[in-house]
């Protein structure tokens, strides 16, 4: 996650600069809501087996180096606050995953140490089991047959409801994802329009002066470090999906928002300027954003290949 903030005064708003501002605002909206779908997915599943803790840990390190770079570069308070928010959101998701992993591991240990009740019942004397079923002639059979009919009817109703849910689930997930994407894009665009009208956001000059390059050298080094973390973070998740042959427990919307955030961030930089000095200054953030889009595409392919394991996530 990287931050895009510009400062300028009194410059005219060109179409390229407007698109740069809109893309940057949509990127920020995507990052702000990025982790929410995965938090909800973990809560619904009552588990966090699908997501790799190594992925989250390396990503968290990338956000920490991004925050350090923002502070070192002396960016505006908005950029620093957003970087802090990213780190805080990472901690919430990591804490949730650790909680569910601990709870589920403890439940598994209890189930392993629990006495085998079925084995005890199998070792009971046959006579005792026969006595327990003594009653009026035919009464047990009638009760059993009636219960059997009720059980079959209940199973039929359950199967029909399950089939309806399974048929509707993919379309429902499609609708939810599309609505969420449109809402994030609309929120980002509206946020930029409000910021521009209130002059909170203004067009940024391309040539900020060469003097800032030396000052931002340390921030650039941290930017490259964060880019390496972002590029490497998804590898454990891709390997985990391949090993498990499943993407169950992962939120597809989580990775869609990541893709949108990275794409719009890169577009915001490139629409602002493609001059060599500006491009090289922002290269680490471009690598961190645009490079991870390839890995996101790999995860989308895994969602498609392993879709039979998680039908609601099929693209």
Plain-language structure description:
By secondary structure, the protein is mostly helical. Helix content is 77%, strand content 0%. α3 runs antiparallel to α9 (217-244), α9 (217-244) runs parallel beside α12 (283-305) and α10 packs antiparallel against α12 (283-305). Mean pLDDT is 77; it is low at 4-9, 126-153, 155-168, 208-213 and 310-315.
Outline the secondary-structure elements:
Layout: H1 15-32, H2 36-45, H3 53-73, H4 77-113, H5 117-122, H6 126-132, H7 139-197, H8 211-215, H9 217-244, H10 252-272, H11 276-281, H12 283-305
Helix pairs in contact: 1-7, 1-10, 3-4, 3-9, 9-12, 10-12
Biased composition (Basic residues): 139-154
GO molecular function: basic amino acid transmembrane transporter activity
Subcellular location: Membrane
Can you describe this structure in just a few lines?
The chain has one domain.
Task: Tell me about the largest β-sheet.
Answer: none
Query: Which stretches are low in confidence, meaning pLDDT under 50 for 5 or more residues running?
Result: 4-9, 126-153, 155-168, 208-213, 310-315
Helix/sheet category: mainly alpha
**Secondary structure tally: strands:** 0
| Overall radius of gyration | 27 Å
Q: What distance lies between the first and last C-alpha atoms, to the nearest angstrom?
A: 24 Å
Order of helices and strands: HHHHHHHHHHHH
The count of domains is 1
Averaging pLDDT over every residue, what do you get?
A: 77
Strand content: under 5%
Helical residues, percent: over 70%
Instruction: Give the overall shape, derived from the CA principal axes.
Output: globular
* Structure annotation, total helices: 12
Region (Disordered): 113-155
Transmembrane segments: 20-40, 52-73, 79-102, 178-195, 215-232, 252-271
Membrane topology: Multi-pass membrane protein
GO cellular component, one term: lytic vacuole membrane
């Amino acid at each position: 996650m990287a931050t895009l903030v510009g400062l300028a005064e009194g410059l005219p708003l060109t179409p390229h600069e407007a698109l740069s501002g809109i893309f940057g605002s949509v990127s920020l909206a995507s990052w702000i809501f990025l982790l929410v779908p995965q938090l909800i997915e973990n809560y619904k599943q009552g588990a966090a087996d699908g997501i790799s803790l190594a992925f989250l840990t390396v990503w968290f390190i990338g956000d920490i180096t991004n925050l350090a770079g923002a502070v070192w570069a002396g960016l505006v308070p908005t950029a620093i606050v957003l970087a802090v928010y990213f780190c805080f959101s990472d901690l919430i998701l990591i804490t949730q995953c650790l909680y569910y992993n601990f709870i589920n591991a403890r439940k598994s240990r209890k189930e392993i140490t629990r006495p085998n009740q079925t084995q005890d019942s199998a070792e009971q004397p046959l006579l005792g089991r026969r006595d327990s079923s003594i009653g009026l002639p035919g009464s047990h059979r009638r009760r059993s047959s009636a219960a059997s009919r009720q059980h079959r009817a209940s199973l039929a109703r359950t199967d029909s409801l399950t089939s309806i849910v399974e048929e509707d689930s993919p379309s429902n997930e499609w609708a939810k994802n599309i609505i969420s994407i449109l809402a994030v894009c609309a929120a980002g665009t509206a946020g930029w329009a409000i910021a521009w009208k209130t002059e909170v956001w203004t067009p940024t000059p391309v040539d900020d002066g060469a003097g800032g390059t030396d000052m931002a050298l340390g921030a650039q080094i941290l930017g490259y470090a964060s880019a390496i973390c972002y590029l490497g973070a998804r590898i454990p998740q891709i390997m985990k999906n391949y090993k498990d042959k499943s993407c169950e427990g992962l939120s597809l919307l989580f990775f869609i928002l990541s893709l949108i955030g990275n794409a719009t961030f890169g577009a915001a930089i490139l629409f602002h300027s493609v001059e060599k000095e500006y491009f090289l200054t922002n290269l680490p953030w471009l690598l961190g954003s645009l490079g991870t889009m390839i890995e996101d595409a790999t995860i989308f392919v895994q969602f498609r290949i392993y879709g039979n394991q998680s039908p609601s996530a099929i693209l």
